[in-house]
Design goal:
The complex is a heterodimer. Chain A is an alpha+beta fold. Chain A has helices at 18-47, 89-93, 129-133, 159-162, 166-171, 174-179, and strands at residues 4-7, 72-76, 99-105, 112-120, 139-141, 156-157, 163-165. Chain A has six helices and seven strands, in the order βαβαββαββαβαα. Chain A is elongated, with a radius of gyration of 27 Å. In chain B, strand 14 (501-509) and strand 15 (512-520) form a beta hairpin. In chain B, helix 7 (272-300) packs antiparallel against helix 14 (433-457) and helix 9 (347-369) runs antiparallel to helix 14. Chain B is globular, with a radius of gyration of 24 Å. Classes of the chains: A alpha+beta, B alpha+beta. The complex binds iron/sulfur cluster (SF4) (2 copies). The site of one iron/sulfur cluster (SF4) has 13 residues of chain A, from helix 2.
């Protein structure tokens, strides 16, 4: 197809005396542009439909798209247990080595479970590779982002803190990851 | 596609006894030479009319620990006239890691060789100013050598550190120093490392004669974080999030370059739809990058209002990226063998809506700036450098195009689906800061045009290759089929294993040629993962551009170079 090279058009030089007139005109034009933005925002404010771009966090929050990657969390099933089987794939895949898992066994239907499952949120970079590696859809990127803590130690999240009920995830991240299930490569 | 056989036979003919071996792997022409003949061959490469390799893209080294000779110097060249590429390699032993410097032929080799010295301890004979570039003087060892452990402590760092930091006066190397005009004493001024009028952590040491800059030295490395070492210690797929951090204002482009380099190593190509999605993501990133550059320039020249318009527009571009891959800055979007997700529903409408507003905002910002006498006075005619000199420095991208050189890899070596698209490559006529600004503005509008075309033309189909050797199988199959479950385990724990070999692959990123040089030894981890980043080469001529100009001219020049710390310091 046609790609062309074009030479950019430079605006006419600002030589006197026309330059002086044009400079004056430019100032007026700048004021016109800025006041247009002002009146637009003001009108939006009066009508109760703000057009200002700033979001007043934390009172106001953005609606995130399903693809949004917040902090990685563990899926909590209806029975209150985690879905994770402690296979360790997420630990392998994590580029920053911030996941720590100690596996253990029980007599439940799913025999393996993580006795310890820690994520060091100060090192996690929300990349989502753990979610991609997990063969059980047990660790997913939630829409939660608030991980501030008062101490370094507080940035390590344990299993109990990481569990998020299935219901919440079903409306946030799951629609995004499940879209790939029906990819034409699948049977 | 250039003819590598012909190229290699010309080189063999010109300097037969100096060439040890030539090969042509995955379309990359390579010449292995005797190290003592480097300067002579390099001169032939540059000056021969049929070869005309005028652009020295990259100098690096690979440490083959345990082999004799141990270090392999690797040079990448490009010819803007013939549009062909060449890789030159020469081995030097550990006992005497010395080779001739290429600074007499390409001034741009200066920083590249300093980096190689810093990282590998290679000495360059005849280099005017061989100091460390990223690391500090007290640093012990050369970190990219294979026998340098990643967790090694340095004397100045960590508990129990023994050394003490000796503050030293800012220095300008003798080789660059000139006397002031009036013979009066020069004033030493430091700009940076974090100066409010420069976006990017960089220290510029200046000698001023009145307000005129007599000497300048640019010191980089404040954001150095060992990108290459980090990539070499993880699997191929684990490096993708790190590439985000190279150019954090257009992360998807960095992802695309890296993944395509790995795919070149494998010799695979992603399905057509995947290529379209990559172009869409990449071009939206480019829009965001140019918007930041334009906005920050306005801000640093004291025009605050257009800055807000540009940033609002960038926010809209980031909203699109957020909808695409779930993060605004750290996209981690592209995968080896595909992309992490297909376009979301309703993406085309969202694009249409946001682009409309972006164009309005850009027009407003432009309307406030281009006729403004202050803005014009600080941009027009400032920091002109001839195209030949820019090329000698290894500058690429909008900076070079503003000087009138038609070099855009999307057009010169079309990759992905760029040959099916319709877009303009803007060139400047005078090569001053105003041209650089206008080139970016035009490119931004062209990128919008490209995305709109892609959204119209994008075919249905898969976005990923269906090959368990490099791309994870779809989750639905992992749950239901044993075979795919095994593939998932294998790929995650061992990483994709490309065949042994080496490739260089470059894309046109927002600031110029972004190339990756990968060496595979057949394992799941890259033996060498080198990023040739445009900001590094583009920042180098800054000192020369501002020499003889006023102190205030540094700000617009630095803005137009658009140095991205993450990319420059790696
Ligand atoms: S999101 Fe990335 S960094 Fe964080 S735990 Fe998962 S793999 Fe590790
Ligand atoms: S990959 Fe999934 S199932 Fe395996 S340990 Fe991690 S969270 Fe648990």
């Amino acid at each position: 197809m046609a790609t062309r090279t074009v030479t950019v058009q430079r605006p006419a030089p600002m030589d006197a005396p026309q330059g002086v007139v044009r400079s004056g005109a430019a100032v007026l034009k700048g004021m016109w542009i800025a006041s247009r933005h002002f009146w637009r925002n003001f009108w939006g404010f009066v009508r109760g439909k703000p057009t200002v771009f700033t979001v007043q966090y934390p009172e106001e929050r953005l609606q995130q798209p399903p693809a949004f990657r917040g902090m990685p969390v563990l899926v909590q099933m209806e029975n209150g247990k985690e879905r994770c089987v402690a296979c360790g794939l997420c630990e392998w895949a994590c580029p920053t080595d911030c996941i720590t898992i100690y596996p253990a066994e029980t007599d439940d239907e799913i025999e393996r479970y993580p006795r310890v499952f820690d994520i060091d949120m100060s090192r996690c970079m929300f990349c989502g590779l753990c979610e991609e590696a997990c063969p059980e859809e047990a660790i997913v990127m939630s829409h939660r982002v608030e991980i501030a803590a008062f101490s370094r130690r507080g940035t390590v999240w344990h299993k109990e803190d990481l569990l998020v009920p299935l219901r919440e995830l079903e409306t946030t991240r799951f629609p995004h990851i499940r879209r790939t299930y029906e990819s034409p490569a699948a049977e | 596609m250039p003819n590598n056989d012909r190229l290699l036979s010309i080189i063999r003919g010109r300097c037969a006894e100096a060439v040890i071996r030539t090969d042509d792997y995955r379309g990359d022409a390579t010449v292995v030479i005797r190290p003592e003949r480097l300067l002579e061959i390099a001169r032939v490469l540059r000056d021969d009319r049929e070869l005309a390799f005028d652009l020295l893209l990259d100098v690096t080294c690979v440490d083959y620990l345990g082999q004799q000779p141990r270090f392999e110097l690797v040079y990448h060249f490009y010819s803007t006239r013939h549009r062909h590429r060449l890789r030159l390699k020469a081995r030097v032993p550990e006992s005497d890691p010395t080779i001739d410097s290429l600074v007499p032929l390409w001034v741009g080799a200066n920083w590249l060789e300093r980096e190689t010295y810093d990282m590998y301890g290679i000495c360059f004979r005849g280099h005017p100013d061989l100091r460390r570039i990223y690391l500090y003087e007290e640093f012990e060892g050369h970190p990219l050598r294979k026998d340098y452990p990643k967790e090694k402590r340095q004397p100045l760092i960590g508990p129990g550190s023994k050394g003490t930091y000796k503050p030293r006066p800012p220095e300008i190397p003798h080789a660059h120093r000139v006397e002031g005009m009036l013979g009066a004493e020069l004033m030493r001024v430091q700009l940076g490392p974090s100066h409010p009028a420069t976006h990017g952590t960089v220290r510029i040491v200046l000698d001023l004669d009145g307000e005129t800059i007599v000497n300048a030295d640019v010191e980089i490395g404040y954001l150095h974080r060992g990108f290459e070492k980090e990539c070499e210690s993880g699997f191929y797929y684990q490096a993708i999030p790190y590439t985000d951090r190279l150019n954090y204002s257009s992360a998807i482009l960095c992802n695309v370059g890296y993944c395509m380099a790995v795919e070149k190593l494998f010799g695979v190509e992603v399905p057509l739809r995947g290529q379209f999605v990559r172009v869409i993501g990449g071009e939206i990133s480019r829009i965001a990058d140019h918007l930041l550059c334009i906005g920050a320039t306005a801000l640093e020249l004291n025009a605050f209002t257009p800055f807000l318009y540009a940033l609002e527009a960038r926010e809209l571009a980031w909203d699109l990226i957020n909808a695409l891959c779930g993060a605004r800055v750290t996209s981690n979007f592209v995968r080896i063998g595909g992309v992490s997700a297909d376009l979301p529903e309703g993406f085309a409408e969202l694009c249409q809506q946001n682009f409309k507003r972006i164009l309005e905002l850009v027009a407003d910002a432009e309307g406030m700036l281009l006729e403004n006498p202050v803005f014009r006075a600080r941009m027009e005619g400032v920091s002109i450098m001839s195209p030949e000199r820019l090329i000698a420095y290894g500058v690429t991208g909008p900076l070079l195009r503003a000087a009138g050189v038609d070099l855009d890899l999307r057009r010169a070596e079309p990759y992905l689906i760029y040959d099916q698209l319709d877009f303009d490559v803007p060139l400047g006529s005078q090569g001053d800061n105003l041209d650089r600004f206008l080139v970016r503005l035009t490119e931004l509008r062209q990128s919008i045009r490209i995305v709109e075309q892609c959204l119209r033309l994008i075919p249905p189909g898969p976005v990923d290759v269906d090959d368990p050797a490099l791309r994870l199988p779809p989750k639905g199959r992992v749950f239901n089929r044993m075979e795919d479950m095994i593939n998932q385990f294998k790929l995650v724990t061992e990483g994709p294993k490309p065949p042994p070999g080496e490739v260089y692959f470059a894309i046109e990123s927002a600031n110029g040629e972004l190339g990756y040089y990968l060496v595979s030894d057949g394992t799941g981890k890259p033996y060498k993962c080198r990023a040739r980043t445009p900001s590094f080469s583009n920042t180098q001529p800054l000192a020369e551009m501002v020499r003889g100009r006023l102190l205030a001219d540094i700000v617009p020049t630095f803005d137009m170079i658009n140095m991205i710390g993450g990319e420059c310091d790696r």
